[in-house]
Amino acid sequence: MTLLLTLHSILRWVIVLVAVAVIVKFGIALLKRQSYDRMARGLASGFAGLMDLQLLIGTVFFVWSGLSIQGGFALRHRWEHLVVMLIAVLVAHLPSRWKQKDDLTRYRNGLVAILFSLLLVVVGVFALPGNRWLTISGL
Hints:
72% of the residues lie in helices and 0% in strands. The protein is mostly helical. The longest helix is centred in the first third of the chain and has 31 residues, at 2-32.
């Protein structure tokens, strides 16, 4: 179970790094009015895929560790975390919904979706008791 928590904790930082890459790419592309290319699709898909993996690991940990209070995690906080993160994952998939839009719209909407997804991640992490941002849990 510690392995799951550690993976979940480390993957958070990988997601942040990929999100920064997406934000930089989309921001530059918006300013330069570039066409929506393979790199943009790959970064957006990679971000959504990592969010899916994070949700899977988190859900397995949630169920495996039991639906009761454990390790200082109040049940309410864990459910809030799960629900907010589920919404963040759904928002992370929105850029794939705009395939038929023009390039500028895809970049703009994708940038907003990724930023909103990251905001939800921050809210979800703060839903947990204690300061969980700067530590890698489970180590």
